[in-house]
Amino acid sequence: MKPQFLIAAPSSNSGKTTITLGLLRLLHKRGMSVQPFKCGPDYIDTKHHSFAAHKTSVNLDTFMMSEAHLKEVYGKYAGDADVVITEGVMGLFDGADRMKGSSAEIAMVLELPVILVVNAKAMAYSVAPLIYGFMHFHPGVKIAGVIFNFVNTESHYQFLKDGCADLGIAPLGYVPANEHIKIPSRHLGLAISPENDYESIIEAAAAHISRTVDVDLILEMTQRPDPVHTPFIRVEKGGLPIAVASDEAFNFTYLENLDALRNAGEVSFFSPLHDPVMPAAEILYLAGGYPELYLEQLSANMTMRESVRAFCENGGKVIAECGGMMYLGESIGDKEGLEYPMVGFLGLKTTMQGAKLSLGYRIVEIGEKRFKGHEFHYSVSAETEALERIGKVYNARGKEVDMAVYRKGNVVASYMHVYWGENGEWLRAE
To answer: What positions constitute the catalytic site (predicted)?
Structure first.
């Protein structure tokens, strides 16, 4: 038995990430091994989780993963931990198609109790019908207790406790507003930036939460049997040499995707920012990230750009996602319109000028193969030459969308972040 729970909220911007980070660090400081998970495809929250818990956070996603694979991943990483904390996404029941892919669906599949974080800044006893609705909307979702956020006084908290008492649900404490524990935002949500002192922010969040949240009660009431880890049967490890871009500019990678690459061959990590050339490989994986924040450095590293272009031109197999696709193009423009030359293999220019958000789950069908993932970017791209487009792309509701998947030689590139952690065997044959 061990404490296992999912932190959710009625809506986004309720403070569940800050509370999650505070709890992760607080329990780590108690000497406990805390395994974090994140619902949905978000890369940035997992980085914050990993920093707070000193343990790599893992994505859970019922749109991109089968139920069996979801359970496998959860059991694989949760088994050795003392406490397991999963942070939800958006509102508890918000999914790509009704509840599909929602935090509630993940809680039901994994049989996790839910700790509901409620923004009670402008509410008193009226929280009762709000909580009642979340308690009774779906019988498969079990709300174990409530933490009230943005509550500054004990007298305010008393009104909220009265509502909980009448509902028969545990009040688990409250968190006063505090600007010093707010994670700064950037254009892709919660930012990973050297400008921010995350250590101080997370330490402050842990101390702040410890004063008014009953952490011991949370651990006591969320005890669940240890998760069972039944690993999938995978074929024998392959021997393909695989190069993976990994640095400040390219780091949007799923842990299970990397494991699938390691199972297919020998993985070498390299930095397009700092290394002179890419390593010898048969497959190159250029993941997304923040290339737009490092345009001058990426452009100035001409030996790296030339080595990547030569690899593409000589028939190397490349998977380029979002920022990786941008890097393979002719140039990337900043917000002011200044263009920085990039690899130049794809006849494609991207810019952050006039940026607009494109996001959502995606399904790509290429021949008999079907891949799931998500699109999330602000840059805008334009072709400078005719590029071959392959496959059909659909959103979570099955509607075809205009997201290009390019193929040139053995290079496949698109804005889509693909999840292949469950079906990575195609890597050996492509």
So the answer is: 322
